[in-house]
Amino acid sequence: MPRLRRIECSGPGLARVRRGRGFEYRDEHGERIADEEVLERIAELAVPPAWRDVWICPYPMGHIQATGIDAAGRKQYRYHDRWRERRDREKFDSMVEFAALLPRLRRRVTRDLRVDGMPRERALGCAVRLLDRGSFRIGSEQYAEDNETYGLATMRSGDVTVDGTTVAFDYLAKGAARRRQTVNDRAVATVIRELKRRRGEHELLAYRVDRRWSDVRSSEINDYIKRAIGDQFSAKDFRTWHGTVLAAVALAAVPEDRRASKTARKRAIRGAVEQVSEFLGNTPAVCRASYIDPKVLDRFEGGEVIDAELPRLAAGGAALPRLRPALEASVLRMLGD
Predict the structure, then answer these.
(1) Which residues belong to CATH 3.90.15.10 in the chain?
(2) CA torsion, points 114, 115, 118, 122, in degrees to nearest 10?
(3) pLDDT digits (tens, 9 = 90+) for 213-240
(4) Whole-angstrom Cα distance, residue 304 to residue 333?
(5) Which of 14, 47, 76, 293 is placed for a possible disulfide with 92 were both Cys, Cβ 3.0 to 4.6 Å?
(6) Whole-angstrom distance between the N-terminal and C-terminal Cα of the chain?
(7) What proportion of the chain, given as a percentage, has pLDDT over 90?
(8) One-character DSSP codes across 24-45
(9) Residue 88: which pLDDT band, with cuts at 50, 70 and 90?
(10) From-to residues of CATH 1.10.132.120 in the chain
(11) Do 57 and 1 touch, CB atoms closer than 8 A?
């Protein structure tokens, strides 16, 4: 099998040129491409028509196959399928290590949430607890400015309410999709209630330095995680772990008579992926490819699930925080076998 080759997309490549209602393609020398095999490869890349300044790799085995600038002015990439599969395997292998280190990170967060006042470590501890208990994207300052859509680091105070120990979020997320979610956590509710006492319109998460407020930035949240458990981890790992655990729980809750045949198991997998999709706010296709460890689905197809009693006990919701360590440990055992 041919090997992938690393490619610099700043080097020579194929170009896409608008012609009438369609496009034509030119090689590195500006000559029109007529080779059917090359044109078929380009068509399979499905580069969106809205992209401009499109660059296409001249080599079929280049790890980057195409780049372009989207309508929002962001550079986008099309990777070779084998490269994407390799990166996904590495990501899921790393996720298992992340999950094993989560107890250490959670202990750090618990300590920092008990600090008096609103210093940096308490605000960051609150942010990481929310990543752990919710389904938030971390967000970025530039993305919020350009698109007026938000993640955890850029959440506006007016999009959040507190009722007792429950914090409710209602905001525009990536893709201008309205997201509503609640987190029930006494320590988080206490911090958010204090932060919402600030006057005026402002971002939710902030900390005090010498009597002045400073907004929490996404890079600070990631740095907090890295200092606690390692440089290879970031806020994104929470969503991958949440997606994997939720899929494992959903599949274990499927009655045995609904997983007796291959067709029934495939139907159950679709249902589990849809649950993850609803929780994370991604499409089912993206969730299956990027947020659910394929081992969970493979084991289910082979008749293996986590302890089926745990999902049934957790179904009521109230017991979930108490059972969460056992659920996660059961998923880790499955992934480690």
Answers:
(1) 113-229
(2) -70
(3) 999 999 999 999 999 999 999 999 999 9
(4) 12
(5) 293
(6) 29
(7) 69
(8) EEE-TTSPBP--HHHHHHHHHH
(9) confident
(10) 236-336
(11) no
Residue type, 140: S
Burial tier of 69 (Cβ tally within 10 Å: 0-12, 13-18, 19+):
middle
**4: nearest Cα among 118, 83, 110, 99:** 83
pLDDT for the residue numbered 315: 56
The answer to whether the beta carbons of residues 254 and 174 sit under 8 Å apart is no
Give dist(CA 65, CA 81) in Å, integer. Answer: 9
Structure tokens at 218: 């996404």
Residue 301 has pLDDT above 70, yes or no: yes
Is 309 or 194 the better-scoring residue by pLDDT? 194
| Residues shown for the chain | 337
Q: What is the pLDDT of residue 219?
A: 95
Burial (0-12, 13-18, 19+ Cβ within 10 Å), 120: middle
How many Å apart are CA 192 and CA 185, to the nearest integer?
11
Among the residue ranges 138-142, 287-291, 319-323, the one predicted with the least confidence is 319-323
145 compared with 10, residue with greater pLDDT? 10
Q: Considering the entire predicted model, what is its pTM?
A: 0.79
Q: Which amino acid is at 333?
A: R
**Range(s) for CATH 3.30.66.10 in the chain?**
14-79
What are the strands, taking DSSP E only, across 28-119? 52-56, 64-69, 75-79
Q: Which CATH class is domain 14-79?
A: alpha beta
CATH entry, 113-229, from 3.20.20.70, 3.90.15.10, 3.10.450.50, 3.30.300.30: 3.90.15.10
Find the mean pLDDT for residues 74-78. 87
Token pair 């009438």 is found at 20
Q: How far apart are CA 131 and CA 303, in angstroms?
A: 32
Has residue 246 got a pLDDT over 80? Answer: yes
Architecture of the 236-336 domain: Orthogonal Bundle (1.10)
Q: Confirm if 16 and 23 have CB atoms less than 8 A apart.
A: yes
Over 50: is that where the pLDDT of 81 sits?
yes
Tokens matching residue 239:
């969503």
